[in-house]
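**User:**
If convenient, please work through this fold.
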Amino acid sequence: MVRAQTAHSGHYNAGMTATAPRSVADIDGFVGLLKAACADQQINATLQRLLAMPDAQRQGLIHAWVTDLLIAEAPRHFIEAVGCLLDDAIAEKAYAVICQCHRGKTGHV
């Protein structure tokens, strides 16, 4: 199993491709993860707890989670989606999005 992290973004690049996506919007699994969090209260609550953690703690848990996902041979798109949450700015925006949809407001994911 091979794991790589792009130096500039904090995203996991499970396929070791030469170019990273321009934004997380290009990562279907990430968009799907946010949609799942908006649709399912349990996923929403779990992600809110994770994303509300201090950055270093969140990053440590995400690294461990990604490692577990790689060992379990989880789908690459899901591993990439979780890896996106390593980036502080992305995690902050994801938190805002899932909090907003949890309150019943509609917004673009």
